[in-house]
């Protein structure tokens, strides 16, 4: 996954699987939206070796500000919702009502 700084992402994995990490040091939550402030392509994870990581805006982890594994996130897909389809449905229904009522 090619993340970039400033990109919005969604947390898909907030499970703590390292015995030395507490929730106080681990404030991400599944389903929450975050913005990437830094990318660490070769971070040495304590239990998983070298992984790609990201740092998130608004979260500065204690001690070393170590990144979160990229695999814990997916890009946020923002869709622009248009109500035009509903307007067309309304016009169609109004025309049908007009025909039926005659």
Description:
The chain has 102 residues and is α+β, with helices and mostly antiparallel strands. It has one domain. The chain is 18% helix and 29% strand. Strands 4-3-2-1-5 form a five-stranded antiparallel beta sheet, with no helix packed on it. β2 and β3 form a beta hairpin. The longest helix has 18 residues, at 84-101. The relative contact order is 0.21. The model has no long low-confidence stretch (mean pLDDT 81).
Per DSSP, the total helix count is 1
Which sequence of SSEs, written as H and E, runs from N to C? EEEEEH
Q: What value does the average pLDDT take?
A: 81
For the record, give the distance between the C-alpha atoms at the N and C termini, rounded to a whole number.
Answer: 59 Å
Looking at the structure, what is the overall shape?
elongated
Radius of gyration over C-alpha positions, nearest whole angstrom? 23 Å
Work out the helicity level. Answer: 10-25%
Trace the largest sheet across and list its strands: 4-3-2-1-5
Q: Quickly give the structural class.
A: alpha+beta
Low-pLDDT stretches: none
Instruction: Give the domain tally.
Output: 1
- Beta strand %: 25-35%
In total, the number of strands is 5
């Amino acid at each position: 996954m090619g993340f970039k700084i400033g990109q919005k992402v969604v947390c898909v994995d907030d499970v703590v699987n390292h015995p030395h990490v507490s929730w106080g040091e681990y404030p991400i939550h599944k389903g929450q939206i975050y913005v990437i402030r830094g990318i660490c392509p070769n971070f040495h994870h304590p239990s998983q070796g070298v992984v790609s990581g990201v740092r998130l805006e608004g979260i500065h982890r204690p001690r070393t500000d170590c990144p979160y594994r990229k695999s814990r996130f997916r890009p946020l897909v923002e869709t622009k919702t248009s109500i035009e389809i509903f307007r067309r449905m309304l016009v169609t229904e109004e025309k049908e009502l007009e025909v039926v009522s005659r």
